[in-house]
What does this fold into?
Amino acid sequence: MTCMYAPWLLLTQLILLQVANLEAKVPAIIVFGDSSVDSGNNNRISTLLKSNFKPYGRDFAGGQPTGRFSNGRIPPDFISNAFGLKPSVPAYLDPNFGISDFVTGVCFASAGTGYDNATSDVLNVIPLWKEVEYYKEYQSKLSDYVGQHKAREILTEALYLISLGTNDFLENYYTVPRRRSQFTVQQYQDFLLGLAENFLREIYSLGVRKISLTGLPPMGCLPLERATNFMNHHECVEEYNNVAVEFNGKLNNMAAKLNQELPDYKILFTAKVYEFFYQIISNPSSYGFDVAEVACCSSGTFEMSYLCNEHNPYTCTDASKYIFWDAFHPTDRTNQIIADHLIPDLLNLFN
It folds into this structure.
């Protein structure tokens, strides 16, 4: 009997070993950033920038709003699923989750934040330095929960997703006069670049080694920017897009420098997000979309957060036909298409 079952036992052991090795490479997805990746942290703070009410989340599992600025999922959810982890990444401040849920992934992001602390002050959201403090707290909790050795392994081998910067320009620099009185836009780019480098060096010192760093999207093509671009017939605001391209180039160079300087640091700068997203907006029908200029929610021109009202009669019935869900944020389907475009590179480098 033993001889008959030995091959099956050996095969089972080999399979389990392969699975263990796979899990060891990326045991968790950990997220820093803004509303592009916030899975609900703003629900728990005193800010007007929330999305924990309908129609947000209407196409999420269970049809309930979670605090994600979308009708459904956001990119970290798709990436987590692609790495064989949970189908969604929970928010650190969500009281429905605890350290046992955060072992395979956690989100510290806050909608409305940026590299610049002054950006988080605009709508009273969590600044990036506070996201790092939450991460340190999480490190301690994880160590208590799984043991110091296992926690160090998880934190070192985890994939860190970082996405922010848009609010620094659209919510802060171009809206509030303070930074414009201090910097030209190129000087502000360099100021943000210094903050970004300090942040990346700090988390490296905390044990972070694997990073997917997302640059700016074609922010001049967001529905709000197009809606207010009266002089150019509601086309994309090229000034904003040009700033995004310039800043992304600088961010890419800085990431390359850190990869050279800091041992074992792997920063994948996902520069192609801009190009791919712009391609989708420019040729929506090629990706199965009907509408690129306006969003699904309400009039689709300027509404987001509380202005995105479930009782508005103009809200579309099928968000999958729209690139944007509200005036700033993509739909579930757009997020999936963009994430699917990035995932092969992430799996190739980090898996």
